[in-house]
Every structure is written in C-alpha cells, then in structure tokens.
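look at this fold:
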Amino acid sequence: MDCPGLKDRELLERAEADGRLLWTLDKDFWQLALQRPIPLKRCGVILFRVHPAIPENLKPIVSRVLRADREWIGHVSIVTKDGVEMIPVEKPRS
C-alpha cells in the first residue's frame, strides 16, 4: 500500500477498508487501534518492538511472524524477540 503523507489514523482506516495487516515500529498504532470507536474487523496491527530496529535485528522476528499460524485480523499484536502478545480489539466498554 503506497500511502505517503497519510496521518496515522488515516492509514489505520485505509488498512481496515482494504482488509490489510499493518506492520509497524510506531507504537502509536496500537493505541489508535485499541481506542477506535468501532473495533477492527478486517485488519490487524502488528507492532515490532525491537531495539535497535535495524535489519539484522528485525529479520529473524519478521521471518517468525511470516511463518506463524495465527489469526492477526482483529488483533493488535506486539512482537518482540521473546514472543508475541496478541490483544483482541473489542468494542469499547461504556
């Protein structure tokens, strides 16, 4: 998806509309996804928490995610070298 110049919220909405996974190093996306008034149903957010975020550190973690048999849609997932935490995106409580 080629979306230069889109704001974070617009990018998240575009991913939801297109039914895509949003892979990011930007921790703002998981907050946007969890605070969204309408839960994500068609997309998911995968946040990579790797320090430093350089190709040598990201490559094995990204490879692990690509091989994983998980349902990423409807979740905000935080991926580290130690594992994956998946948070289901649900309707906010009143």
